[in-house]
From TrEMBL:
GO terms for molecular function: FAD binding; oxidoreductase activity. PANTHER family: OXIDOREDUCTASE (PTHR42659:SF1), XANTHINE DEHYDROGENASE SUBUNIT C-RELATED (PTHR42659). This is Xanthine dehydrogenase YagS FAD-binding subunit. It comes from Kibdelosporangium aridum. InterPro entries: CO_DH_flav_C (IPR005107), CO_DH_flav_C_dom_sf (IPR036683), Diverse_Substr_Oxidored (IPR051312), FAD-bd_PCMH (IPR016166), FAD-bd_PCMH-like_sf (IPR036318), FAD-bd_PCMH_sub1 (IPR016167), FAD-bd_PCMH_sub2 (IPR016169), Mopterin_DH_FAD-bd (IPR002346). It comes from the Bacteria. Gene3D superfamilies: 3.30.465.10, CO dehydrogenase flavoprotein, C-terminal domain (3.30.390.50), Uridine Diphospho-n-acetylenolpyruvylglucosamine Reductase, domain 2 (3.30.43.10). The keyword Oxidoreductase applies. Pfam families: CO_deh_flav_C (PF03450), FAD_binding_5 (PF00941). Coiled coil: none annotated. Residues 1-218 form the FAD-binding PCMH-type domain. Keywords: Oxidoreductase.
Length: 323
């Protein structure tokens, strides 16, 4: 680890001043410290923001407002989240380990960087870590990499389970910098294109203040499925966040996003549209899930993800919507 300056911000103003001078924000530190230890990240200064007033969860008729310093464990066990937004609670509980969930914050989780082995190996060419160096995954071991949303510059998958659930529910981020702005999470996370090093729509010194999740008749009938190589402490090969509104044996609304297969949390609008107005049942789920991998561009070692994605979506549709 390289030398760096450390400070604690006693107020939002202090934090924004430090961030404006190039300091990196730290709360739980479960991602940034790892990257600094591996010398992938080399910030000159780090500012602790745990004293900021971003640690509340507010629930009302309009939805949830989740402070960015709320921990993953706190959000997962909140008495309104589990029954009314089960997809969020399940995505959190299937993430990381209990120890990490007790430390990691919601803002930090959404800002975490890819677990691509080439990104974290400073001896390997990686455009995300060193723009212009090349992408080792394209010709290397790419079993874990993306089949959707990639480019000639990067095919690393997005690591956050929570982000998949939040994208499915149309969540928005409240950001604070020179002023306050609200950005849909689906637009905040950026596909790699030719600039894979730019992963988020966040301006220099800007802070994530809160996450807003709108209420809807579909949020309570929702769930998250994560398929991985081992039962715990592993990242997804494929995952699906599904939320459905069903009335009188007809699907009125569908919200579906997937992870483990794309460079960003991937919304399946074609699958959603195929479900609208249909009768819930196995035939409906299977037919809609066949569209889940539309546009996929598998690599040498991850073609299996095409069928895995379809099966993951079909299984979770059945779990949430019924046979």
């Amino acid at each position: 680890m390289y030398p760096f300056r450390f400070s604690k911000a006693a107020s939002e103003r202090e934090a924004l001043l430090a961030g404006g001078r190039g300091a990196r924000y730290i709360a739980g530190g479960t991602t940034l410290i790892d990257l600094m230890r591996e010398t992938v990240e080399r910030p000159q200064a780090v500012v602790d923001i745990n004293a900021l007033p971003y640690g509340r969860i507010e629930s009302g008729r309009s939805g949830l407002r989740i402070g960015s310093l709320v921990t993953m464990a706190e959000l997962a066990r909140h008495p309104r989240v589990r029954p009314e937004y089960p997809v969020i609670a399940q995505a959190l509980e299937l993430s990381a380990s209990a120890q990490l969930r007790n430390m990691a914050t919601i803002g930090g989780n959404l800002m975490q960087r890819t677990r691509c082995v080439y990104f974290r190996d400073v001896t390997a060419p990686c455009n995300k870590r060193a723009p212009g160096a090349g992408c080792s995954a394209l010709e290397g071991d790419n079993r874990m990499h993306a089949i959707l949303g990639g480019s000639a510059a990067c095919v690393a998958t997005h690591p956050s389970d929570l982000a998949v659930a939040l994208v499915a529910l149309d969540a928005r981020l409240e950001l604070r910098g020179q002023g306050t702005r609200v950005v849909p999470l689906a637009e905040f996370v950026r596909r790699p294109g030719q600039t894979p090093q730019i992963e988020h729509d966040i301006r220099p010194g800007e802070l994530i203040v809160a996450v807003h999740v709108p209420a809807g008749p579909y949020t309570a009938r929702s769930g998250y499925l994560k398929v991985r190589d081992r039962q715990s402490y592993e990242f997804a090969l494929a995952s699906a966040a599904v939320a459905l509104h069903i009335e009188n044996r007809r699907i009125v609304a569908a919200r579906i996003a997937v992870g483990g297969v794309a460079t960003v949390p991937w919304r399946l609008t074609a699958v959603e549209n195929a479900l609208l107005g249909r009768t819930p049942g196995n035939d409906t789920w299977q037919a809609a899930a066949m569209l889940a991998a539309d546009g996929a561009e598998p690599l040498r070692h991850n073609e299996y993800k095409v069928e895995l994605l379809r099966r993951t979506v079909a299984r979770q549709l059945e779990t949430v919507g019924g046979a």
